[in-house]
Amino acid sequence: MRIAVLIVSVLLAPLAVADIYRWVDPGGNVHFSAKPQPGAEPVEVRPQVIDRDDATRERQARTERFFEARREEQEAANVAASARQAQRERECQQLQNRLSRLSHGGRYFSADAKGERVYYSDEEIGAARRQLASRISQNCS
Predict the structure, then answer these.
(1) Distance between CA 87 and CA 92 in Å, rounded?
(2) Where is this region: Disordered (predicted)?
């Protein structure tokens, strides 16, 4: 809205400083011109001021509040989407790191209820690699 007012002001500015002349030709016809003619008299042109009523101002304020709320919603949605994307990237990085560690070889184990090491078989490690690769292909781009 402010931009429209600015544009109209810029376009009407030359009219505000231009001189307008009124003259009558020999046939009795009234003419207006920016150039003075013989017998022309200057005419004062005042810009029209548009005064809005209360209902119009309220509609405009309601519209501005609506658009401001939409902008805030979109900004919040963008922030949430960025957070989700960052979380997804962290998870993908963790999955890739785990797959990389499994691919280096070595012996992998977990602790049982007694605290003793239980080593994974080659089949279990291969299954874990396939599962990680599958999750990476599904969730990471």
Answers:
(1) 9
(2) 32-60
How far apart CA 13 and CA 72 sit, in angstroms, is 36
Collapsed DSSP state (helix, strand, coil) of residue 66: helix
Mean of pLDDT values over 94-114 = 86
Q: Does residue 138 sit in the same domain as residue 89?
A: yes
**What is the CA 124 to chain-centroid distance, rounded?**
49
Phi then psi for residue 113, to 5 deg, are -60, -30
pTM over 0.70: no
97 and 139: one domain? yes
Tokens of 134: 């599958």
67 and 26 assigned to the same domain: no
Distance between CA atoms of residues 57 and 59, nearest Å: 5
Q: Which of 25, 19, 62 is nearest to 43 (CA)?
A: 19
Tokens of 10: 């810029």
Q: Please name the helix (run of DSSP H) or strand (run of DSSP E) that holds residue 30, with its range, or none.
A: strand 30-33
pLDDT of residue 135: 92
Same domain, residue pair 46 and 67: no
